[in-house]
Sequence to fold (295 residues):
Amino acid sequence: MANEKKLIIIDSSALLYRAFHALPPLTNKNGQATGAAYGFLLILFKAIKDLRANYIVACFDTPKPTFRHEKFDDYKAHRPKTPDDIISQIPIIKEVLKSFNIPIFEKEGFEADDLIATIAKKNEAYAQIYILSGDLDNLQLVDEKIKVYTLGKGIKDAVLYDENKVVERFGVSPLQMNDFKALTGDSSDNIPGVPGIGKTTAADLIQRFGSVKNLYDELSTDTAVVKPKIKEALKQNKESAFLSLQLVETVKDLELDFNLENCKFTTFDQEKVKTIFNNMGFASLIDRLPSLVFD
Fold:
């Protein structure tokens, strides 16, 4: 359908981080690190072409703590400090996005994932949504109109997650991904989950009981058929499971000054973009510019 609206929502911070680790270090003639920004653009250009996207918006994390840190002091506590070479490239990628007339959203107290969830859910009736990310935290949003486009093994590989792909990979539906992670935890964000419960056991429990709440309701009546060791772990870590469930749930109703039509990706100042790319040493990307815009 030629006029179908296809919106890419860029999970910018996660994509920069993934690109930084996927490529060898690169610098421009001034010694400025550019590898993460270059990788970010390679992935974005590929996504635009693969998906024939005609609307684009970018979301970023902010350095400030979020409401999740207020719920759980140790949220993301074990995560290494973001490398300076990533931080220094955030202004570069924002400058490039602005030169493409791609709107940028960020909100103190919330993560990019919350902005992504809000924009996706509020606009899925008006456009096919593709979340472009370097991680899988947004799989909880996948439905008929929302898909997650992410990197495969290498920067040139991509995986598009629809509902079937999520079930195939994790054994649970997108709507159950939060329950799944509430049991398994997430070491990258220091989400505790239930110690001793791995992905296979978590998937089995969620398949059988439907949700964490249903699982604990059954446990409370002692009717749940669960191995004694697993049952004991669940009972001892009930508070941790429900806290984890709160931490992984994205906010879907933020107040944002968002207008879908402001994200229409139709024209941009190619000379301005070329100047930025030449300064950054991205000459190889310049030839791709004319093929980026779709009706």
Observations:
- Residues 35-51 form the longest helix (17 residues).
- The beta strands are 6-11, 55-59, 104-105, 128-133, 146-151, 158-161.
- The chain has a mean pLDDT of 92.
- The chain has two domains: 6-171+251-290, 174-248.
